[in-house]
Amino acid sequence: MKRFILGFFLVILATSIAMAQTTTGRLSGTVSGPDGVLPGATITATDVATGKSQTTVSNGEGAYSFPQLEFGTYTVKVTSAGFKAYVASSVKIDVGRDYSLSPALEVGAIEETVTVTAGADVITANTAQVSNTISPQQILSLPLLTRSPLSLTTLQAGVASNSAANTTINGMRTTFTNITRDGINIQDTYIRSNATDFAPGRPSVDDTAEFTITTTNSEADQGSGGAQIRLVTPRGTKDFHGALFAYNRNSAFAANSFFNNRSRNADGTSNMTVAKKPSFRNRNQFGGKISGPMPVPGFGEGTPVFFKDRGYFFFAYEGIRDPLSTAASRTILTPGARNGAFSWNRTNGTDISPYCASQTVGSVCTIPNILTFARSFGGNFLTIPAVVDPIIQSRVISLLPASSNFTGGDGLNTAGYRFLRRSDQTRDQYSSRFDVDLSENDSILGVYNYNKESNLRPDADTTAFTVIPQVNQLSANKQLTLAWRHVFSSNFVNEFRGGIFTSEVPFDKTDATPAYYFALPLVTNPENTFLSQGRNTKAFNFQSNADYIWKSHTIRFGGQAQIFRVNAYNDAAIVPTVSLSNTNTGVALATTNFAGLGGISTGQLGSSNGMLALFGGVFNSVAQSFNIADVSRGFEAGVRQYQPFRNENHAVYLSDRWAVTRNLTLSLGMRYELFPGLRINNGLALEPLIPDAANMNSSLLSLSGTSGVVGTNSGRKNAYYKTDYNNLAPNLGISWSPSYEKGLGKFLFGGAGKSVLRGGYSQIYGNDSIITSINNAAVGNPGLARTAVSLLNLNGRVSTAIPTVAPPTFITPPANLVAEQCSRCRQLLRYGLRDRSGIEVAARGSVQLWFPA
Questions:
Q1: What is the pLDDT of residues 508-529, one digit of tens each?
Q2: Which terminus of the chain has fewer Cβ atoms in its 10 Å neighbourhood, N or C?
């Protein structure tokens, strides 16, 4: 069975490699006259932007279709001998959507013309899938703070979003959202937890012509995932157009924050810059765009040197310069504690102590020097230095600010320090598109988008006191799309499309890395403990769509090949961390040490020991993580964790949309998805060997069980699990547009073409964070994954020597893991109002499954 399915898949793939994530729309309908349907009518669709025309003829049932029209506005002319010409202007074809236009011709001379203004198809009556297109006017006119058109996704019915959770569509996980730009997926293939809200491709207002959101019952040709967001780059036109823009957001016009105001002194003054005014910001976004015709060289005898009406271009640039400051809070030592003094609140009122100015319970007592105080008890305490450890002095104490605004800490030994840190963002973004009509039946297009940005990351460097964070995120993203569309006949069109999207996302540590880090008590570590990490991803996409019109059936078929390459790396914890603590060291102060000194609470006793360990450089543990670069060498110190993940997603589909009548459409489709098992290319992962997959529990619980390199259970080198072959995804749909002209039916449904009833069922498969989900389970197995080693119960001193941590001398995914699927059903009524308005009432349901086979 598996060989048959695989063979069938390869045959289809060889002739048509793609999923129907095209950037085109579809125009269809039925031509009729006074006596019924009208075969042989000539229908011409003319692109208003370029002047290019396409012609077809209605078939024996009067039906016609333009299955792959570029998005934009068209003028449609219908002619037939003995009838007046019918002209529909402003026919808006949206990306990934259908437009239904069924003209009724009037008897008369063909020279006579009946002209109507069609506009947008509000209800889209000939499909069961639910979608909506955000028009160019909406994208450019609606206020968007970040100039990202994806912000408009939340305005669609069924989309839920709030500040505490990622955006979801009809209750599905955000990972089931598929975002494409010019047919190529531009999402992060590694981290997909915010897949609806963020796309590294960074679409912007001026480089997005429009986009369509399909939220429910997407047909078999739509692609993987449950919700589809399909963006397109603007096209050039026969006339030149251009625009410039500049946008500024400045903190000079902003109100101060509550916390900054709270940091002021009682008299309203403040010596802290952060408290005097809002965090500095001067965000500038600027750029421009230009589009128009371009000359295309002529080849062959009898052709002009250049064709002036066959090529079109679009180019846009957008820059961001956003110097921004954000408030940061740290904990530092008070001036007295900085010199070694320790203060606490006495817990009894009977003792008379030279360290306490008052015998009142709760009054403050102060020891001039915590180190001298501890050494006065002799014994092991004499191993504590009499002065501050010099390494601690240079790496910690000297780096802590001397003044504070007392917005944190305990007010005795520690205090808060609030200051401004830079969070600058710089981005340059270029977008371009080129369209060429090679002939009447052949056209090609190319899209290239590039953006590069630099972001200072105070959210990664969360401890240092520097104004400029010592972590920088440099990101470069590139997209290339090429497509060729060929019209074989008036009823058969095919498009081949291919592309690549690459994303480099490094989080770089910009300061020097010491031999070891400290884990400090009481205060914030002034050193940046973040270590570099990041990922480089590549997504290859090859696709094709075929549309074949037969009588009243529109048949679509094709397939897809998507190849993902993710190289993730992480230096986390490869540098030793020394924990300053005197717990279990024999040099910890106890409540008895404060007997006769007014007593001390348990919490403040902990603070005294924290200060003693900090100033004395006392540590009780050292921890370090180790990675493997080569299995033959085992774990090594200082080696970066490197994970080259490899996975694919292939599919074939076949769908049929049958126009049963002018107002009733049935759709039936089947999509087959193939998700080859995720692999880690260097094989650095272990799994428990399962000799009998039918009795997995007994294999896992066996005391004599063994482990092996990942891929042993699946039978494929480096694969975490076996390939899942049985992913058939059916799709059923019905749409009916009531055509009552009087009575209760007209009252409820508004007459012909005013409303539509839809219903359907679809099953889908998607990428539910496949890499991070599997990897998070696999790294639970000690073995080849990053492994932490800790030296505990030490009694060390920083100035003597830090002991070396020796490298170490396994939860695995099930071998038969299946791809996640989602089943959905929907009932819907959509009522079209005047102009572009409509009301939609719907009921939806979905069930998601993910379990071992």
A1: 999 999 999 999 999 999 999 9
A2: N
Asked whether the beta carbons of 18 and 561 are under 8 A apart, the reply is yes
Q: What percent of the chain lies above the pLDDT cut of 70?
A: 89
User: In the structure, how many helices (H) and strands (E) does the chain have?
Assistant: 11, 45
- In sequence order, what are the residues at sequence separation of 6 or more whose Cβ sits closer than 8 angstroms to the Cβ of residue 770? 647, 675, 678
What φ, ψ does residue 408 adopt, rounded to 5°? -160, -165
Cα 21 to Cα 582: distance, rounded to the nearest angstrom: 62
Smallest CA-to-CA distance from 347 within 152, 532, 597 is with 597
DSSP characters over 286-298: EEEEEEEEEEEE-
Phi/psi of residue 663, nearest 5 degrees: -125, 15
Residue with tokens 């989309």: 159
Reported as a pLDDT band with limits 50, 70 and 90, residue 709 is confident
Q: Which two tokens stand for residue 645?
A: 């993940």
Could you tell me if 210 and 170 lie in one domain?
yes
> How many CB atoms are located within 10 Å of the residue 603 CB?
10
pLDDT tens across 291-310, in order? 999 999 988 777 887 888 89
Does pLDDT of 836 surpass 70?
no
703, 723, 704: which is closest to 713 by C-alpha? Answer: 723
Instruction: Please check whether residue 827 is in contact with residue 666, taking contact to mean a CB–CB distance below 8 angstroms.
Output: no
Indicate whether 29 pLDDT > 80: yes
The predicted pLDDT at position 321 comes to 96
Residue 810's pLDDT is 44
Q: Which of 232, 265, 288 is the last residue of a domain?
A: 232
Q: Report the domain count for the chain.
A: 2
Residue 782 is encoded by which pair of tokens? 């000690």
Residues contacting residue 345 through CB under 8 Å, at least 6 positions apart: 362, 363, 364, 365, 412, 601, 604
112 lies in the same domain as 159 = no
How far is Cα 678 from Cα 143, in angstroms, rounded to an integer? 42
DSSP H or E run through 824: strand 821-832
User: Tokens 């972590």, residue?
Assistant: 471
Which tokens go with 253? 């016009």
- 626-662 as b/e: b if 16+ CB within 10 A: bbbeeeeeebeeebebbbbbbbbbbbbbbbbbebeeb
Confidence grade of residue 818 (pLDDT, cut at 50, 70, 90) = low
587-629 confidence digits (pLDDT tens):
999 999 998 899 999 999 999 999 999 999 999 999 999 998 8
End of a domain among 232, 249, 267?
A: 232
Residues 774-789 have a mean pLDDT of 77
| Confidence class for position 790, pLDDT limits 50, 70, 90 | very high
> Is 9 inside a domain boundary?
no
Rounded to 5 degrees, φ, ψ at 697 are -60, -45
Examine the pLDDT at 679 and tell me if it is beyond 80: yes
- 665 found inside a domain: no
CB-based burial, 807-837: b 16+ in 10 Å, e otherwise? beebebbbbbbbbbbbebbbebbbbbeeeee
3-state secondary structure of 228: strand
Tell whether 211 is covered by a domain.
yes
According to the model, what pLDDT value does residue 16 have?
Answer: 38
Tell me how crowded residue 353 is: count the other CB atoms within 10 A of its CB. Answer: 15
Q: Provide the pLDDT confidence category of residue 342 given band limits of 50, 70 and 90.
A: very high
**Phi, psi (rounded to 5 degrees) for 8:** -60, -45
At position 509, the amino acid (one-letter code) is K
3-state secondary structure of 532: coil
Nearest to 518 by CA among 602, 413, 400: 400
Least confident stretch, 260-264, 265-269, 617-621? 265-269
Any bridge partners for residue 472, and if so which?
456, 508
Residue with tokens 């799309």: 481
Q: What are phi and psi of 747, to 5 degrees?
A: -65, -40
Domain that holds residue 22: 16-117
| Residues 64 and 138 occupy one common structural domain | no
